[in-house]
Amino acid sequence: SQTIHQWPATLVQPVGSPLSLECTVEGTSNPNLYWYRQAAGRGLQLLFYSVGIGQISSEVPQNLSASRPQDRQFILSSKKLLLSDSGFYLCAWSVSRVAGYTFGSGTRLTVV
Amino acid sequence: RKEVEQDPGPFNVPEGATVAFNCTYSNSASQSFFWYRQDCRKEPKLLMSVYSSGNEDGRFTAQLNRASQYISLLIRDSKLSDSATYLCVVDTGTASKLTFGTGTRLQVTL
After folding, report:
1. Pick from A57, A88, A97: CB nearest B32
2. Quick check: B34 contacting A, CB < 8 Å?
3. Is B82's Cβ below 8 Å from some Cβ in A?
4. Do B49 and B63 form a contact (C-beta atoms < 8 A)?
5. Is A80 helix (H, G, I), strand (E, B) or coil?
6. What is the pLDDT of residues B7-55, one digit of tens each?
7. Which residues of A76-112 are buried (b: 16+ CB within 10 A; e: fewer)?
8. Closest CA to A68 of A33, A38, A104
9. Do residues B32 and A100 touch, judged by C-beta distance below 8 A?
C-alpha cells in the first residue's frame, strides 16, 4: 500500500533562518507531488507541484522553492524565512486527478 | 468569482440531525469532484468522490449538478464524531491540480 511521510511535525524557526521540509512517498511510482500551505483559519494554498523528477511548477511567487531530486521525494526550502511563512505545510501525492490526493500529516511551522 | 465557494459555517446541529452542505465551482471544464474532511490541526482526508449520478456511502450522500455547477454533501443521523471541516474539491480542468474550497465547519452537539 502507498504511504506518505512528512517531517518534522512541528518546527519553530527564527526569522531569516533557512528551511527544509521533506516529503517521501512509498508504494507508488511516478506520483504527482504537491506542497500546500494552510494559514491559521484559512484554506489550502497550492505552492508547488511536480509531475516528475526535476519538474517543478510554482503557483505563488514567494521566497520558497521546491525540488524533486528523486521520483518519490519532494523538498520545500527557503533561504530566509519571513514571519508570513508561518503555517501548516502539507505534502500530497496523486496518480491522477480522478483519484484525488492523499496528504501527509503536515508540518506546523511557526516563524518567530 | 472564486474557483470553489463554500459557506464557511459553522453549522451547529444536534446529534441525529440531517445537515447539507453546498459548494459551487466556476470551471465548467472540471471533471473530478471530491469531498474531504479535515479535523482540527490535522491533514485533510478524502471522504468521498462525487460522481455524476450521485453516490452514497453509509450516512453520506454526494450529488453533482453540472448544469448549475454545484456539489452537495448530505449527512444523515449526525454523530458527534462528524464534527470537522468539510472541504469541497474540484479539479482545475488542466494538468493534475485540484482546487480546494475554504471549507464548511460542522459542529455536532449533544
Report:
1. A97
2. yes
3. no
4. no
5. coil
6. 988 999 999 999 999 999 999 989 899 999 999 999 999 999 999 889 9
7. bebeebeeebbbbbbbbbbeebeebbbbbebbbbebe
8. A33
9. yes
Q: Is A43 on the interface with B (CB under 8 A)?
A: yes
Check CB contact under 8 Å for A100 and B32: yes
Check CB contact of A106 with chain B, cutoff 8 Å: yes
C-alpha cell at A92: 500530497
d(CA A89, CA A108): 6
pLDDT along chain A (112 residues), means of 10: 92 97 94 92 90 90 91 96 95 86 96 97
* Bond prior to B10 in cis (omega within 30° of 0): yes
Buried b (16+ CB within 10 A) or exposed e, A41-75: eebbbbbbbbeeeeebeeeeeeebebbbeebbebb
Distance separating alpha carbons of residues A68 and B103, to the nearest angstrom: 30
> A57–B95: do the CB atoms touch at under 8 Å?
yes
Q: SS3 for A44?
A: strand
Nearest CA in chain B to A104: B43
